[in-house]
């Protein structure tokens, strides 16, 4: 019996050795993406998570640019960041649905090191009741707006990588972009779309030393959530409450820490971690534990 066992062990050793060599060659390697003294460009940066991200990045010594539609809100955000961090930020008023306007803002802002595509609109309603114009608006802002922003910024990001080190493109998705939720047909579709965009984009830009991240926050205490709750279906509220709500600055810290470590998937709470494990699939990974935590 011992001879038989040794025989089978001898058969297993060569493939196991080859697997070990393969692991050493292709294993994911940790990435460090610095923030200090680098240009961080944030869309939807005048309120909510985007404003919290701008505060966080500025406090860490980044050169921050924020973009949103309202110049008045941008001025308020700029003054608030100046007051708290003592740092001036650049502000750009543009609608992410307008590629030419976005391109002008990016050209004026200069080379970007960390692009955080954070803009988003969400209106919870059953598809049967929701008007198609509203569905189209959600898709255009959340998904097409992200394409516009990345398309505008990517050439400059690629050109500057040799001199400026690793770059990052982070997309603000949602737990509703990991699992479909009642009342979120349009919103979930737009956020699921970001997953496909991010996975394919990572393959296209990793050779240029640009790392893609997907952030999956739960309900977050922002002005947008207040407006959403005014017409959210009761069942949607019950489901969303099961994951709890986070404060914008908590989400911002989780997001920025994940971006700095080059993580592809960035969950924000315990339920998000479980969802990330359940939905990891074939997502790219910068670290071994990405697929399990």
UniProtKB/TrEMBL annotation:
Name listed for the protein in its UniProt record: 3-dehydrosphinganine reductase
Keywords: Endoplasmic reticulum, Lipid metabolism, Membrane, NADP, Nucleotide-binding, Oxidoreductase, Sphingolipid metabolism, Transmembrane, Transmembrane helix
Major location category of this protein: endoplasmic reticulum
UniProt xrefs under PANTHER family: 3-KETODIHYDROSPHINGOSINE REDUCTASE
Compartment(s) where it occurs, according to its Swiss-Prot or TrEMBL record: Endoplasmic reticulum
InterPro entries found in the cross-reference section: KDSR-like, NAD(P)-bd_dom_sf, Sc_DH/Rdtase_CS, SDR_fam
Entry coiled-coil feature ranges: none
Record-linked CDD domains: KDSR-like_SDR_c
PROSITE patterns: ADH_SHORT (PS00061)
């Amino acid at each position: 019996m011992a001879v038989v066992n040794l025989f089978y062990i001898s058969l297993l050793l060569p493939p196991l050795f080859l697997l070990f060599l393969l692991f050493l060659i292709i294993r994911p390697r940790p990435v460090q993406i610095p923030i200090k003294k680098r240009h961080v460009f944030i869309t939807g940066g005048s309120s909510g998570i985007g404003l919290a991200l701008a505060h966080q990045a500025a406090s860490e010594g980044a050169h921050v640019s924020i973009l949103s539609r309202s110049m008045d809100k941008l001025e308020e955000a700029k003054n608030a960041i100046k007051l708290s961090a003592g740092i001036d930020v650049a502000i750009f008023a543009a609608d992410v649905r307008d590629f030419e306007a976005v391109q002008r803002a990016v050209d004026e802002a200069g080379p970007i090191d960390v692009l955080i595509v954070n803009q988003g609109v969400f209106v919870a309603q059953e598809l049967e009741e929701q008007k198609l114009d509203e569905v189209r608006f959600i898709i255009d802002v959340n998904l097409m707006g992200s394409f516009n922003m990345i398309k505008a910024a990517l050439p400059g990001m690629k050109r500057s990588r040799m001199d400026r080190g690793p770059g990052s493109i982070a997309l603000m998705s949602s737990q509703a972009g990991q699992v479909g939720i009642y009342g979120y047909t349009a919103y979930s579709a737009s956020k699921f779309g970001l997953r496909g965009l991010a996975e394919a984009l990572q393959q296209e830009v990793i050779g240029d030393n640009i790392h893609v991240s997907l952030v999956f926050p739960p309900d977050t205490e922002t002005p947008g959530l207040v407006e959403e709750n005014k017409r959210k279906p009761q069942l949607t509220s019950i489901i969303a409450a099961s994951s709890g709500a986070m404060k914008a600055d908590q989400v911002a810290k989780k997001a920025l820490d994940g971006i700095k470590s080059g993580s592809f998937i960035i969950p924000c709470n315990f339920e998000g971690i479980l969802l990330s494990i359940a939905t990891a699939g074939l997502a790219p990974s910068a670290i071994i534990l990405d697929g399990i935590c």
